[in-house]
């Protein structure tokens, strides 16, 4: 994460990436100063490529006064230049949230609203659903992968073949509904806890 500071009056048309310029992240109150995280720009480029259409930033950086005016959280990531509320052409808010989930993994913030998706690059993890008008915390937004990653990932490396076979036979390692073990995907704390719990149960049975 690297947050850079720009002046819209001097650098508004500056390209930060192939498809995003400084002015797109500017505060809607007309302030000249704008803060933008380089990781956020990269995330938006990834989402744009995945969605196959333009990504519009409805709210990027916010000054403290504007954040208060629009009812933003007291410690909003928008204040830091690490957040953007976006609309993607050709993809609804939920699908955009799923795309962001894939690219952010176990970090960042993703909020799905009725008409837009909030994404941010905080170091921790936060997920919420605001489509009903009331914020509800959720564990995440899984369910999407790039087309090139849609092959079933059930073949372990040679050194892990015996261990994976044992873990599957003993119920420690379980795949998704499609039978995909996702062997090359990172393990979350929740998944690790589930594996350890199953191992403890296995030990008690022996």
Task: Compile the SSE list and pairings.
Blueprint: E1 3-7, H1 8-11, E2 33-37, H2 38-51, E3 55-59, H3 64-69, E4 83-88, H4 93-104, E5 108-112, E6 117-120, E7 125-129, E8 136-137, H5 161-169, H6 189-205
Parallel strand pairs: 5-7
Antiparallel strand pairs: 1-2, 3-4, 4-6, 5-6, 7-8
Helix pairs in contact: 2-4
User: Average pLDDT, to the nearest integer?
Assistant: 91
User: Which percent bin holds the helix content?
Assistant: 25-40%
Oligomer: single chain
Low-confidence stretches: none
Tally of DSSP helical segments: 6
Instruction: Identify the overall geometry.
Output: elongated
N-end to C-end Cα span: 48 Å
Largest sheet: 6 strands, mixed
Q: Tell me the structural class.
A: alpha+beta
Order of helices and strands: EHEHEHEHEEEEHH
Major sheet strand order: 3-4-6-5-7-8
Radius of gyration: 20 Å
Write down how many β-strands occur, each being a DSSP E stretch of 2 or more residues: 8
Strand content: 15-25%
Polypeptide structure, described:
It is a single chain. With 206 residues, the protein is of the alpha+beta class. A hairpin with a 6-residue loop joins strand 7 and strand 8. The chain is built from six helices and eight strands; from the N terminus they run βαβαβαβαββββαα. Helix 2 crosses helix 4. The protein has a six-stranded mixed beta sheet.
């Amino acid at each position: 994460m690297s947050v850079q500071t720009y002046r819209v009056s001097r650098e508004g048309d500056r390209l930060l990436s192939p498809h995003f310029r400084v002015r797109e992240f500017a505060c809607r109150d007309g302030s000249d100063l704008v803060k933008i995280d380089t990781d956020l720009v990269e995330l938006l480029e990834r989402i744009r490529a995945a969605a196959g259409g333009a990504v519009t930033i409805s709210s990027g950086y916010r000054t403290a006064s504007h954040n208060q005016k629009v009812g933003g959280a007291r410690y909003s990531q928008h204040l830091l230049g690490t957040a953007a509320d976006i609309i993607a052409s050709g993809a609804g808010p939920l699908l955009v949230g799923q795309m962001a989930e894939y690219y952010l993994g176990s970090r960042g913030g993703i909020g799905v609203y009725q008409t837009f998706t909030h994404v941010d690059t905080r170091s921790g993890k936060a997920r919420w659903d605001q489509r009903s008008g009331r914020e509800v915390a959720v564990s995440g937004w899984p369910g999407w992968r790039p087309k090139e990653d849609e092959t079933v990932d059930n073949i372990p490396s040679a050194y892990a073949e015996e261990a994976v076979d044992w873990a599957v036979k003993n119920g420690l390692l379980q795949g998704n509904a499609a039978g995909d073990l996702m062997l090359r995907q990172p393990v979350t704390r929740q998944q690790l806890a589930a594996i350890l719990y199953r191992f403890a149960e296995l030990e008690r049975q022996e």
